[in-house]
């Protein structure tokens, strides 16, 4: 029997600093000039640029961006010195609860997924609970860029089981604290956070089906190390393995189809019946790749990459928020959310959209 549980409210929280491509052109002119000359950067450059294979739609959509030193990035949101991913999570959490007309004491569980959390080893969940002043359970979930659909799946299952009624999910990413500006990888990433409340909905609404598979082929390609900064503090640093680009190009199409078709089948529907698709868009070409691979029209999805660049797991929340705010998703529409997490899992989840309350529009968003 279907138990109607899903997203009741949704909020997005962004840092105050907005950086356009001109920032890097003015501050690092030699680096940009070198990149333009070589038509190649460390991130996402294919190991073999002789041409895209006709059967690989990922390669075909990627190729037009390879001569752009910013790979299609236009703007990215960056944490200021007095901001943190935890502050963004707490702001989004308060906004989501206010929109849902819930008092913090009505929350039974907090699930936080942060890449990376402010306190390595403990995660942000308990800190969010402390900021909200509530005593409910609080734990952390890690699925890299697939965190949003997997946290939604987990929270929904717990509410459907009757163990909890209102679950608050917070998602954040602080890539700018993990990558130095001098590293060209920083040109393609940004920071941000989001939150949503999972609770009972109207009959026939909510989560209908899901499909998740692991991405263990990338276990050695997403590397977090520590280095000492100029002030003697040890900070985490994110590095990508040399084979990551090739592995992604080989695996992404198959995994996308497996998860999205599997989630639809588990929901008892076909992809053609889905009204709108939400993808975690880590690259400028990813939305086009997904729609082409699934055989759907581009206007059935939202691509927030030009506005945000890659905000990791927050991209799913940002694209969902923007689609709902723009009226692309209406109550009772069928929505599929898909996220691909490196060295973790890829997951798709199908839901029938409810009467979802949206949080305040973040500053700097028109």
Labels describing this entry:
366 residues; alpha/beta; Peroxisomal Thiolase, Chain A, domain 1; six-stranded mixed beta sheet; four-stranded mixed beta sheet; 30% helix; globular; ACP_syn_III_C; acyltransferase
In DSSP terms, counting alpha (H) and pi (I) runs of 4 or more, how many helices?
A: 10
The secondary-structure element order is: EEHHHEHEHEHEEEEEHEHHHEEE
What level of helicity do the residues show? Answer: 25-40%
| Content of β-strand | 15-25%
Shape, please?
globular
Structural class of the secondary elements?
alpha/beta
Please provide the count of β strands: 14
Q: Give the CATH level 1 class.
A: Alpha Beta
Give the strand order of the largest sheet, numbering strands 1, 2, ... along the chain.
5-4-6-7-1-14
| CATH superfamily descriptor | Thiolase/Chalcone synthase
Mean pLDDT, rounded to whole units?
93
- Structurally, the number of domains stands at 1
Largest beta-sheet characterization = 6 strands, mixed
Radius of gyration: 20 Å
Low-confidence stretches: 40-47
Description:
By secondary structure, this protein is of the alpha/beta class. It has a single domain, classed as 3-Layer(aba) Sandwich (Peroxisomal Thiolase, Chain A, domain 1). Helix content is 30%, strand content 25%. It has 10 helices and 14 strands. It has helices at 21-27, 29-38, 57-62, 85-99, 125-132, 147-161, 244-266, 286-294, 305-308, 314-325, and strands at residues 5-13, 17-20, 75-78, 109-115, 137-140, 167-174, 191-200, 206-214, 222-228, 234-240, 276-279, 334-340, 345-352, 357-358. The protein has a 6-stranded mixed beta sheet with strand order 5-4-6-7-1-14, sandwiched between helices. The chain has a 4-stranded mixed beta sheet with strand order 8-13-12-11, sandwiched between helices. A two-stranded antiparallel ribbon has the order 2-3. A hairpin with a 5-residue loop joins strand 9 (222-228) and strand 10 (234-240). It is globular, with a radius of gyration of 20 Å. The termini are far apart. Mean pLDDT is 93; it is low at 40-47.
């Amino acid at each position: 029997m279907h138990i109607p549980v899903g997203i009741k409210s949704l909020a997005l929280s962004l840092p105050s600093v907005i950086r356009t491509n001109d920032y890097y052109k003015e501050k690092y002119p030699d680096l940009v000039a070198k990149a333009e000359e070589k038509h190649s950067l460390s991130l996402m450059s294919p190991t073999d640029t002789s041409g895209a294979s006709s059967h690989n739609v990922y390669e075909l959509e990627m190729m037009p961006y390879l001569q752009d030193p910013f790979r299609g990035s236009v703007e990215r949101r960056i944490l200021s010195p007095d901001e943190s991913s935890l502050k963004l999570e707490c702001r989004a959490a308060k906004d989501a609860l206010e929109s849902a007309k819930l008092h913090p004491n009505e929350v039974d569980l907090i699930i936080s997924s942060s890449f990376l959390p402010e306190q390595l080893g403990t995660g942000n969940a308990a800190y969010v609970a402390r900021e909200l002043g509530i005593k409910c359970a609080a734990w952390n979930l890690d699925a890299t860029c697939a965190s949003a659909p997997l946290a939604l799946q987990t929270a929904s299952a717990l509410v459907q089981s009757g163990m909890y009624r209102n679950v608050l999910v917070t998602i954040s990413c602080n890539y700018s604290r993990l990558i130095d500006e001098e590293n060209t990888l920083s040109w393609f990433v940004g920071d941000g956070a989001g939150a949503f409340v999972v609770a009972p909905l109207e009959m026939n609404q909510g989560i209908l089906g899901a499909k998740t598979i692991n991405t263990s082929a990338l276990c050695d390609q997403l590397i977090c190390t520590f280095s000492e900064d100029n002030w003697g503090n040890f900070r985490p640093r994110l590095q990508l393995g040399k084979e990551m680009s090739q592995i992604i190009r080989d695996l992404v199409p198959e995994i996308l189809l497996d998860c999205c078709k599997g989630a639809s089948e588990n929901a008892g529907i076909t992809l053609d019946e889905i009204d709108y698709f939400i993808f975690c868009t880590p690259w400028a070409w990813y939305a086009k790749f997904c729609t082409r691979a699934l055989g759907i029209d581009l206007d059935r999805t939202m691509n927030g990459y030009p506005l945000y660049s890659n905000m990791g797991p927050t991209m799913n929340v940002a694209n969902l928020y923007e689609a709902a705010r723009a009226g692309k998703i209406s109550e009772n529409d069928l929505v599929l959310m898909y996220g691909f997490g490196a060295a973790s899992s890829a997951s798709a989840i199908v839901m029938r959209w409810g009467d979802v309350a949206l949080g305040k529009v973040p500053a700097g968003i028109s």
